[in-house]
Design goal:
The protein is of the alpha/beta class and about 290 residues long. It is about 40% helix and about 15% strand. The chain has a domain of about 200 residues: Rossmann fold. The protein has a six-stranded parallel β-sheet, with helices on both faces. A two-stranded parallel sheet has the order 6-9. A two-stranded parallel sheet has the order 7-12.
Amino acid sequence: MKVLILGANGQLGWELQRTCPDNVSLTACDYPEIDLLDSHSIHTCLKAAQPDILVNAAAYTAVDKAEQEKENADKLNHGAVRQIAEICSSDRIHLVHISTDFIFNGMNHKPYLPQDTPDPISVYGETKLKGEQVVREILNTNATIIRTAWLYSSHGSNFVKSMLSLMDTKPALNIIDEQVGTPTWANGLARAVWGTIEKKVTGTHHFTDAGVASWYDFAIAIQEEALNLNLIRKEIPITPIPASQYPTPARRPFYSVLDKTSLWQALEISPIHWRKQLRSMLQELK
């Protein structure tokens, strides 16, 4: 089976490469091998690779910057996705497309189901939703869309690694406690992606780790686990604050817990709590 990964240098792309099954012939591409702002570059890369499966883990993910760079965000998250889907359609390539909890408005009182009505509140969310829509429009049943949230890994930049750095250099931290979701180790998401390919799962699904947390809860857990592993030298005070005390250019969903039942059942996997996954990831940093 020939698989092409776009976004190979990102957290998920990196985890997909190191969890790749033995029966897969893998091509992993990122900039400069492919420039998703250049339609010719997309065409050349996909035609050269001739994959059976394409995993699109590439995206414009700078949520706040997208508010000022709407055109670039739309080109990457929507325009490039349209071209990728069109090539997949003409060449009979199955597309696995990664999307986000940001397509929802965050006003729910229970975990979002895959079929719940999207209502993005940021440019990033809007452009990712448009990307989803063109995948469904062009590929119909020959695609898998997986929405995820709060991704982190031992590779790249993320909340966990930022917290570790700040905990080693700051006397105290203030962390938002109003936004609730589920931290997700990119390694677990990568294994779920390979699972969907192996079991030929199609349609729109959600995947995060199990459980729920605020960013404040997440930061507390990071400090506790990091202290146990001697990754940081000392405990510092962490204070919960409302989002109003930390304004950002882009609005964030207050509640972005996703219902993962459909994919857990399709893959026949037992959910793993986010705290256990956090511990596993931090052990890689020792």
